[in-house]
Amino acid sequence: VSYYEMKERDGFCLTEAFLQELQEDVDLLFLANPNNPVGNTIEDVLLEKICDRCREKKIIVVIDECFLEFTRKKGFFETHSMQEYPNVILVKAFTKLYAIPGVRLGFLFCGSQNKTGQIFNQLPEWNISIIAEAAGRAALDETEYRNKTISYIGKERAYLKAELEKLGIKVYPGEADFLLLKTEHPLYEKLLKEKILIRDCGNYRGLSKGYYRIAVKTHEENEKLIAQLKDTI
Description:
This protein is α/β, with parallel strands linked by helices. 36% of the residues lie in helices and 15% in strands. The chain contains seven helices and eight strands; from the N terminus they run βαβαββαααββαββα.
């Protein structure tokens, strides 16, 4: 297994330099769009170039779009044909946008019946419970909730970014329901004492001490976080 580390100077975004990494010795490529913990997306033109090159080199591409709905951007198979890209597998989940992680419900799209069959054969029997199926079916009808949630998260994400930057904290331009921060202050330890838990990202590959990820929550919870940071920093 090989890892490709994105650079801070590029805003932790993929660039066209990544295309040169896609050679015949690569069998399978995993991409997160948007990625974690930054939350930024791959430019549409670059993503298409990556999938084109992988098709040429016979590389299977798995694109994780579990957080993509928060960005209001279209998924890869909303703008490209599955038959045109049989080497691409899209992975999605109900657990993020609909806030139902406990049911562990997700799904995938693939234009290759052969690959779909191979994946299906690896699944355990009865891998989806009746409760999970019912929750998924109900979620698909929640159009109003979906639209309100996406708008609300976008508004609160902008609020958090602006308030954090006022405190001198570097905020990377994420598009999901979380933000990556960088600061010299030991935020994890100080906030934990106040019973506020954030993610210390110092153990992420390519990151180091001083990076933290916070979730975009309700306005009241976000205000509480900002107020505590003002007292802490």
